Amino acid sequence: MCVAAFQVHAADSGATSGSTPVYLDADRGFEERAADLVSRMTLEEKAAQMQNGAPAIERLGVPAYDWWNEALHGVARAGGATVFPQAIGMAATFDVPLMDRIANAISDEARAKHHAFAARGERGRYQGLTFWSPNINIFRDPRWGRGQETYGEDPYLTARMGVSFVRGLQGDDSTYRKLDATAKHFAVHSGPEADRHHFDARPSTRDLYETYLPAFEALVKEGQVASVMGAYNRVYGESASASRFLLRDILRRDWGFTGYVVSDCWAIVDIWKNHRIVATREEAAALAVKNGTELECGEEYSTLPAAVRQGLISEAEIDDALTRLFAARMRLGMFDPPERVRWARIPASANQSPEHDALARKAAQASLVLLKNDGVLPLSRDVRRIAVVGPTADDPMSLLGNYYGTPAAPVTLLQGIREAVPNAEVVYARGADLVEGRDDPAAAPLIEARYLRPSADSNERGLRGEYFRNRELSGTPALVRVDPQIGFRWDRGSPTDNLMARGEAGPGQGVPNDNFSIRWSGQLLPPVSGRYEIEAAANDGVRVYLDGKLLLDEWKDSDRLRAAHAAVELEAGRAYDLVLEYYEGERDAGVRLAWRLPGAKPPFEEALDAARGADVVVFVGGLTGDVEGEEMTVDYPGFAGGDRTDTRLPATQQQLLEAVHATGKPVVLVLTTGSALAVDWAKDHLPAILVAWYPGQRGGSAVADVLFGDANPAGRLPVTFYKAEEPLPAFDDYAMRGRTYRYFDGEPLYPFGHGLSYTRFDYTDLRLDRGRVGTDGEVKVSLSVGNSGSRAGDEVVQLYLRPVAPARERALKELRGFQRIHLQPGETRTVEFTLRPERDLRHYDEQAKRYAVDPGQYEVQVGASSADIRASERFEVEK
């Protein structure tokens, strides 16, 4: 419904003749307008508007709206969008100004996409302006599968990156917000994934206030974040999505939060069904609203009218909650003429623009962390033969992590290397499955277009695809086209507006996100005679017919991409009729058609042959979002529920890596991952290790830029890399003792903040402007940083504070400042920081129940990592 139609329709229902309803008067305050609109609704209508899928109220002209939208590292699940490095990679940049640019680009695309959807009358999930990002939980344990979504293990780094991200999403307009950002998951939530609907987190009060709350406080007070999302688990016995302590006492009373709270999806169900805090749906819904959760992702709030009738909650309390929600929608300009909202003028061309693609490449370059380099990097462009080996080298999923959009032209690491050295021979061999026991659906090569044709009389290459709006392959297809290859992955999006097959973007023909089907047909043209292995993989059902006979049949639902195989004898020069049928039920989707040709060597031997014949080997391995992520239902050795039970490189890859190293060729290890990997063996045996994280759509280009010296690496670890044999604390224990660089007193494999460069930086002239300061004063810190090497590069100058003789148990040291600076060879720059004891040295006094600053001596440490301290000075905090 357009704004004009909305206003006319609304004016016909509830306004005095000839007047404009208060809620449509754009000159009035948002809260006043929202209260007026809510006052016109029935109780049932109010309850429906407090669920994420809010229906239209035709008599008031209120259009339907779904609050659920995602933008973790780009607009997600809404079709084509620029995909930036996963959040953990953005944190590794240690670059707040760069994060400002990234977040602004994401919000430009979100606005452009929303207005395009609305112009077509589409107001469904993933088409709105309220985004459930960022995830600012503390990545306290490397085993957590969702740690990739966070900004790492440090509260200060998390706060700085989070505030920047919120600032970029919400915009700088004094009247209308650009988007609503959401700080999640408030506040003590970081695994285990398998237990998240059941467990009760009970950290010490000190850990709560010194580790788990500071980033949320910063986003509320500094970032003015519009929304906060509760978590699934309990905290001190209360559901985090219905906690009076968290939501009323801390969030609103102590921090002055004026926005709205949304539950995590189906967390309200957990209150009665899993946590058993109350016995009924009505009691759970009433408890959540009364304790401060205005919006539910789910359907339990449909029971609120019954809860009112049962005396569990008053209608006035519902009115108060709903008024907050409509004020938020009005602040986004949803109820006002577009000409009043500057954000409505962002053109559709902003989405996936060349400028954003270039920014994605820059962000990926900035995120790469060089762990080790014995001089093999950067590689010479004169190298004649490069072997690229490993299971994530040519897998687009290794670029994306989770919660991603669809990139227009994703560049895998293999592709990036090939494009960087067009005159070199680049030989690729996958070599091994990602993990042991996984019938890996990316192991066999896709059947190339040159071996497929849509019909006997066609000169096109590929298969004819018929896309249906149902699971039964019935009716008139919504779209018919020729697809060159069958190799698609969709992240909860329609295959025709959220399509990725080596970067091919679909035209947007309205096939639904779920419950669709596709039939591909044509002819298969084998290049040689012999025994072929045909592979079809799908999530959900797939079947293959060859010359009219059923060859593969996996026509059933699946919660993962599952592969089926068949061996067949084929003759060269003959055309075989080929049909592949596929259906998708719900959630993530994918399908691929692959083969192995006669005489093909086993993948392991193929990889060793490639290594033996190469001048240098680039081994690309690690993890993908297929094995680490959110509440997964399929486990593999070393993984459970999306979390990890073993932080080492998966055994399949370790075996291949050692065999490739044994060929005697220099091996550069590139890791795709969302978390720390215990690569002890690689540190001891390989000359170079580079962490790529999940680097986004231009990840392959960025990795090649660093490998061949076009970009100088300067990313830093936002998490500690522990040794493989390090006995970590129990995963389900939320005490911080022994965790992260702040409390871990052992020797890490690689410390927090670590990252190497192709040049050298010197730190000199560290100065403090005073040696004594009161708790309400400040200390100015300055130092000189110079580039003493031969290459231009970035240095991340890190400042830590260490209590010299602490009066109580507290962190060993804490990051309290960082700056990423660019220096030419021979250039020196003065870097300055300002420290305020009441902000930077506070601890939580459990007896006084407030923050306090201990008098005494503190040490300022400045360096290139938490362990590489180049200079230090002490100062005294007076009583």
From TrEMBL:
KW Hydrolase (keyword) present: yes
Domain PA14: residue ranges: 458-611
Keyword Hydrolase attached: yes
InterPro entries, per database record: BXL (IPR044993), Fn3-like (IPR026891), GH (IPR017853), Glyco_hydro_3_C (IPR002772), Glyco_hydro_3_C_sf (IPR036881), Glyco_hydro_3_N (IPR001764), Glyco_hydro_3_N_sf (IPR036962), Ig-like_fold (IPR013783)
Segments crossing the lipid bilayer: none
SUPFAM superfamilies: (Trans)glycosidases (SSF51445), Anthrax protective antigen (SSF56988), Beta-D-glucan exohydrolase, C-terminal domain (SSF52279)
A GO term, aspect molecular function: hydrolase activity
Swiss-Prot/TrEMBL keywords: Hydrolase, Signal
Pfam families xref list: Fn3-like, Glyco_hydro_3, Glyco_hydro_3_C, PA14
Record-stated family: Belongs to the glycosyl hydrolase 3 family.
Protein name from the UniProt record: Glycoside hydrolase family 3 C-terminal domain-containing protein
Species annotation: Pseudoxanthomonas putridarboris
